[in-house]
Amino acid sequence: MRRYNPKEIEPKWQQVWAESGIYKTDMSRTADKFYVIPMLPYPSGDLHIGHWYNFGPTDTVARFRRMLGNNVLTTIGFDAFGLPAENAAIKRGIQPAKWTYSNIDSMKRQIAQIGASYDWDHTLATCQPDFYRWNQWLFLRLYEKGLAYRAKRVVNWCPKDQTVLANEQVVGEDNVCERCGTPVIQKELEQWFFKITDYAERLLDDLETVEWPQKVKTMQVNWIGKSQGALIKFRVPDTRHQIEVFTTRPDTIYGATYMVLAPEHPLVKVITTDECRPRVEQYIEETSHKTELERKEGEKHKTGSFTGAYVLNPATKEKIPIWIADYVLFSYGTGAIMAVPAHDQRDYEFAKKFNLPIKQVIMPCEDDSTNPPKEEFEEVERPTVIVHLLDKSTGKYALLDWHESLEGITTAVMGGIEKGQTPEQAALNEIKEEASIKDAKITKKLAWVTGARYCASHKQQNRKAVAYGLVAEVENLDNQAEIAASEKKLHTLVWVDKKEVLDRLTPEHQKLVWNQLWDETSLDDEGELIDSGKYTGLSSAEARDKIVADLAKEDVAKEQVNYKLRDWLISRQRYWGTPIPIIYCEKCGIRPVPEADLPVILPEDVEFELSGQSPLTHRPDFVNTSCPECGGPAKRETDTMDTFVDSSWYFLRYLDAKNDKAPFDTDLINRWMPMDHYIGGIEHAILHLLYARFVTKFLHDNYGLDFEEPFKKLTNQGIILGPDGQKMSKSRGNVVNPDEQVNSYGADSLRLYLMFMGPYEQGGPYDMSGIAGSRRFLDRLWVLVGEFLEAEGPNNSKDLEIAATTHKAIKKVSRDLGQLGFNTAIAAMMSLVNELYKIKAETGISQSTGWRFALETLTQLLAPFAPHITEEIWESLGHDSSIHISNWPLWDDKLVAEEVITLAVQVNGKVRSEIVVAADITEEDAIAAAKSDEKIATQIAGRPVKKAIYVPGRLVSLVI
RNA sequence: GGGGAUGUGGUGAAAUUGGUAUACACGCUAGCCUUAGGAGCUAGUGGGGCAACCCGUGUAGGUUCGAGUCCUAUCAUCCCCACCA
Questions:
Q1: Protein residue at shortest CA distance from C1' of B25
Q2: Residues A122-134: pLDDT tens digits?
Q3: What is the DSSP letter of A774?
Q4: Residues A873-903: b if buried by 16+ CB within 10 A, e if exposed
C-alpha cells in the first residue's frame, strides 16, 4: 500500500486543477450564483498563518457550495498600494512598483499551496493602471455630484522632512517624526474629501438589512454616532456675533451657566478681550502641542481659559461667560457648547475647577417602588429633609426601621420642612423628635434636591417629596433622651456602620441621597424641571420639545440631528497610490481630468529625495500639463488617494476584471451582487466596510446598481495566536510559519487543523501538537481506503449499520458546514472514521456496497476541507472526474432514524437509570417501562408517583 | 466612563437551544506489535469513595419535574470605543 504523502499529491493536484480549469466560473449562469471571497490582502510578501485562517475556510465554503450545485465564484487579489512599499524603497533603494510586484509573485506562489479554488481570471492588483484608472473614474463621478470636494484640514507635518505623517508615524511621548526625530507640528493643508456624511442616515438604516455579526453592526452604529438634539444660538451682547451650540439636552438650558468654545473656534480670536488675550493665546498654543496622552489626562484634569467675553442665555436672558477649553472638540457639533455643570459630568468638573456657578434645573424624581403612589389619590408636593445622623463616638449612623403600613422599609431620619423653616432647622427638629437628641450639629448639605413619589396612605394622598440631603453629627449619645412612645410605634431607631447603610436603606431615592452625600456628581439623567421659568414641573422629554419650539419662534433654535461620522479624507501626500485626477490651472482654477484622458499614470521609476516629499513633486513630466479648459500651462495634483478607495469597490471589479471600457458591466454586476458571503478580520469592521457601503450606495444612486448593500452576509474569523497564547510577533519569537507546517504535515492537515481547533469566529492559540491529530485522521482515512481497495469479497454483514452511521454523518456535516461549524463537522467525520475502524475490527473490511458507500461519502464530505487528499482518494476509488464537481451527498432520514432508542429515566430530577425501548414508543408505554425498570423500582420504593413526564426520544422524568 | 464578549476536565473544546454535562481532538497512563521510534493498534482517563453512591459547567441566589443553557446579584478575564455636548 502506498503511504499518504502530501508533498507528492498536493502539488500534483494543484497543477491538474490549474490545467483543467475546473474552478473557472461561467459568469453567464447566475440563477444559482454564489459569490464568496476573503478580504483583499496586502502583498507584504509573506503569507502568514492568519492568511491561511482566512483563505482556507473561505475556500471550504466555496467548495461546499460548488458541490451543492451553486455556480460559485471565488477569487483573490492584492491591495497593492500603500506606505510599506515606499518605506522599502527608502530603506533598500528598490522601486515601490518592483518591490510590490515581486511580493505579489511570491505571495501567489504561497497562496497556490493552500489549494484554493480561485478563478484567477478575476484577480487584480490595485496598483495596475487598468484598476486604478477606475478609481480615478470614481473620483470624477463623485466630483461631478459635488461629493468630492477640497477643504483645509490640519495634518501632522515634519518640518525637517517637509512631509505629512500618518498618525502611526508620529512616535514617542513628545510627538516626534519616526524618521528623523524632529518634533511634529500641526499644519493646515488643502485636502480632498468624499462626502460620506451625506449618506450617514442610509448607512445607519440599512445595517438592519444585512446578515452581519451584531458586533460589527454596533461598531458601525457607534461610529456613525447619530444623536438627536437642537442647535441653539447664543447672542454676544453689543456685537452682531452669535454663537451656535449643539445640545442633546435643551431641557437643561436654564442651567447653562457658561459657554465653552473649542480652542480652534474661529470666533475665539474675535471675542476675546485684550485683557484676556495673552492668556487665551498661550492656552491655544499649549493645547495645539498636546499629545494623545496629555489629552487623555485631561479627562481627569480639565483645563481652559476665560475669554473675557459673555453671551446671553436665550432662556434666562442672563449674561454668561465664554471660556475656551480643549474638552470641547472643534470637529464635533458646532465646536461650542452651552455648559450645564449641574447636569453634565464634564461641565461639572470644569465648573468645580474654575469656580463657575452651578445651577440645578433637573430634579431626579421617580416613584418609590417600596411604597408606590396610588392612582386614586391626589398628589401633594412636600419639601423634605433626609438627614444622616452620625454618632461620632461609635462611627455609626442612625436609621429608622418603619412599622405598620410601612413595614419592611428602612430610611434615614426624615420628615417634612414646615413653613418658614430652613432645611437645617427641619433636620435638627426631626433628630429631636425621632431620635430624642438635642445636641446634634449639621455638618454637610447636599447641593442638589432630589425627588421621589410615594403614597402617604394615612393621609389618603400621594406625595412628591422634594428632598434636601444632610449629614448631622452628635459627639456621643450621653444626652439622648427616651424616645417618645408615639415615635416608637412608628419606627425603631437603629445604629449601623457606615458600610452597612447602603444595604439597609430600601427606597431607591434614599440610596441616591446617601450616595450623593459621599460622592457628589452631576445629575446627568433626565428628570423633572425645577427653577426653569414657565417650564418648571415638566418632564425632561416634554420640556425638550417645548423649549426648542418656543426658541424656534424667535429663530434662535432648531431641531438638529448630529453625527460623529466625518467626511472621508482621501488625500495622501504620498507617492505609491492612485493619482487624484485633478489639474490646477492658473486661469481656470481646479479642473478635473477629462474622462477620456484617464488613466493619469503613476510613473513607476521615481527617485526618493531626502526631503521626504512625494517623488511626484519632483517630476516635471508628471506635474506639468496643460489645462483641459483653456489649454494653458497647468499643474497636476500630486496627492494620491487613500488605499481604502481601492478596497471600497474592488469586489465589483473582480466580477469584470478585464473590462477596458468601463469599471464593470452594470448588468453583470447586478446579476452577481450583492456578494453572498464575505469573510475577513474584524479589524475592518468600521472603515473598509463603511466605505464599501458608501461607494455602493453612491453607485446605486448614480450608476445603475440595483442593490444598496454590497455584502449580504459577513463573517469575521478570529485571530490565531502564538502557541503561548500571545499575539504572534517576530520580537516575541512565537510566529508559526505556515510553510513549515505544510512541509511537515501537508496543506490539507493545516487547513483541517485550523478549522478543527475551535469555533471559527473565536480563533485562539495555535497548538503545535494539535495539528498532528488532524494529520493522524487523514492517515487513518487513507489507510482505510487502501485496505478497502485491497480487500476481497463483495458482501459484509454490517453493511446496514455502516450505511446508517454514514447517513448520520452526512446530516451532521451538512448542517454544521451550513452554519460554519467547521470544528464540529470535522469531529463528526472523525467519529465516522472511528466507527468504521470498530466495524473493521469486528467483521473486517470488504469490497461491499456498504464500505464503498461509506468511504466515497466520507471522502466527499471531507473534500471542501482537505481538497488534495480527497481528490487523490476519489481517483483511486475509480472516478475519472474531479470530486470537487461531484454532487454533495444527501442523507436519508429513514436511515438516520434509530429503531431502538435509549431513554434516560430521572427520579426527582436525577438520572437513575436508562431503558432501551422502541423508537416509536407511546408516552404511556415509556412511563410504564420506566416504572418497571429494576433500579427505578427500588428508587420509587412503593411511594406514589405524583407526576410523570415523557420527552420523546430523550427521557422519562418521575416525581415522587 | 460607555458598549460588547467570554468563564465547562491537565489542554483546545462539544452539548440537537430547557432534557443523560464533558462529543471530537491534544496530552497523559497501561498493554500489544521482539528492533532504543516525534510510527501504528487496543484499552483507560472530571473529582471523591472498597462499594451502593456522593460532588461537579467562575461564585451566590432564584424559576422549573429538570438549568452549562433562562432570571437576579457578584467576581474574573479579554476586546472595542472613549471629553461626541
A1: A773
A2: 999 999 999 999 9
A3: H
A4: bbbeeeeeebbbebebbebeeeebeeeebeb
User: What average pLDDT score do residues A80-98 get?
Assistant: 89
Global pTM reads 0.91
Residue A144: the pLDDT is 96
Between helix A747-756 and helix A96-114 the angle, nearest 10°, is 80
Å: A83 CA to B77 C1': 36
- Predicted confidence at residue A939, as pLDDT, reads 77
Q: Write out pLDDT tens, residues A815-854.
A: 999 999 999 999 999 999 999 998 888 888 888 899 999 9
A263-282 average pLDDT score: 94
- Measured CA to C1', the nucleotide nearest A222 is B81
Give the three cell numbers for residue A260: 465653552
Q: What are phi and psi of A801, to 5 degrees?
A: -65, -40
d(CA A79, CA A83): 12
**How many Å apart are A772 CA and B45 C1'?**
20
Question: In angstroms, rounded to a whole number, what is the distance separating the alpha carbons of residues A665 and A673?
Answer: 12
Contact in structure between A209 and A711 (CB atoms under 8 Å): no
In DSSP notation, A582-650 reads EEEETTTEEEEPPGGG---PPPSS----TT-S-GGGG-HHHHEEE-TTT-SEEEE---EE-HHHHHTTH
* Residue burial A118-130, b: 16+ Cβ < 10 Å; e: rest: bbbebebbbbbee
Spanning CA of A911 to C1' of B55, the rounded length in angstroms is 15
| DSSP state string for A413-438 | EEEEPPTT--HHHHHHHHIIIII---
Contacts of A117 (CB under 8 A, 6+ apart): A17, A22, A23, A59, A62, A63, A66, A72, A74, A867, A884
Query: Scanning the structure block, which residue is given the C-alpha cell 458482501?
Result: A795
- In this prediction, residue A919 carries a pLDDT of 79
pLDDT, tens only, A902-916? 888 888 888 888 888
State which residue has its Cα closest to the C1' atom of B85: A247
Contact partners, residue A478, CB within 8 Å, separation at least 6: none
Which residue in A42, A533, A17 sits closest to A252, CA to CA?
Answer: A533
Count CB-CB contacts under 10 A for residue A144. 12
User: For residue A579, is pLDDT > 70?
Assistant: yes
Closest residue to B4 (CA to C1') is: A215
DSSP letter, residue A444: E
What was the ipTM of the complex prediction?
A: 0.94
What phi and psi, each to the nearest 5 degrees, are found at residue A480? Answer: -70, 130
Give all strands (DSSP E) within A723-824, no chain letters. 763-765
Cβ burial, residue A624 (10 Å; 0-12/13-18/19+): exposed
Pairing relationship of beta strands A677-681 and A33-38 according to DSSP bridges: parallel
Three-state secondary structure string covering A516-579: HHHCCCCCCCCCEECCCHHHCCCEHHHHHHHHHHHHHHCCCEEEEEECCCCCEECEECCCCCCE
Give φ, ψ of A438 to 5 degrees. -105, -20
C-alpha cell at A751: 487547513
Q: Cα–Cα distance between A886 and A872 in angstroms, integer?
A: 14
Return the C-alpha cell found at A190. 488643502
Q: What is the pLDDT of residue A300?
A: 66
A849-862 vs A799-818: helix axis angle to the nearest 10?
10
- With residues binned 3-state (H G I as helix, E B as strand, rest as coil), the percentages for chain A, rounded to 5, are 40, 25, 35
Supply A586's cell numbers. Answer: 492658473
Find and list the nucleotides of strand B having atoms within 7 Å of a protein beta carbon.
Answer: 3-5, 11-16, 19-21, 23-27, 38-43, 53-54, 65-67, 80-85
How many residues are given for chain A?
Answer: 960
